[in-house]
């Protein structure tokens, strides 16, 4: 039976570079053996998410998320709740492209990113569930995590990742601690903190060493709790994080966990960030769905230490053989 792929792309992403490269991208997926069609997202809410669900239920074997991390998050949300989930591929064209960076997918050229499918290797990736929503890379709470949705989309389009740094610099003097109660696998934290982060990959906000020892597909989050809200101490921690040296600092808690329950005390509000977008407010329960989605990646470019045990990740794609007349 002919395999089918559905490309869900944001026509505004990458200064419309995706749109201009679409013919070449379609040809690459056809070369990989997929009968391929494309869907341009619309301004309607959850456009990419709804199309991903529709494509999966229509029997597509592969759903391709083409756009920024927001588009990828929507496609993940459209697939993760289904019993039968097709494979995914990613063509990045956003601002930070954290997820593509973690999977070693080219981030500057959509056509080169599409060619990853020709390597025919996939990885089974963990997906996070936050109550009824899903996230593929990060979840967080606290004042520091609010800067990603504090940057206007127009500013992000013009200045890219620099926009996040500029917004973060403006927000730092305003940061105040949040009284948190966080319960994880082997313990709990109760006290003031400026932020907690749950990471599924090592690429968070453009940094690749925030959680340097992540193993993709092992079923665990990397939980980081930043206990200080002092401006000078936060600036120092950010500098340490560039080289991955922040984890030994006494103002940081770093643990692995399968689950997290995040609450506040004293009636405080804590907004939750899911993959860079506002995801509601605490209390919230986060669960790791181990190896929930199978995604094309440049597995050969990844260090073996970043992959789960053999047989769990870095899987060669198994071609679907055409059925004979007797099998139909």
What are the key terms here?
elongated, 17 strands, single chain, Tumour Suppressor Smad4, alpha+beta, Rossmann fold
Query: What is the succession of H and E elements?
Result: EHEHEHEHHEEEHHEEEEHEEEEEE
Q: How large a portion of the residues is in β-strands, by DSSP E?
A: 25-35%
Q: Which structural class is indicated by helix and strand composition?
A: alpha+beta
Top-tier CATH class of the largest domain: Mainly Beta
Radius of gyration: 20 Å
- Runs in which pLDDT lies below 50 for 5 or more consecutive residues are 157-163, 318-328
Give a quick account of the main beta sheet: strands, pairing sense, barrel closure: 7 strands, antiparallel
- Shape from CA axes? elongated
Pfam family, one: DAGK_cat
Organism: Loigolactobacillus coryniformis
Domain DAGKc: 1-134
GO molecular function: ATP binding; ATP-dependent diacylglycerol kinase activity; metal ion binding
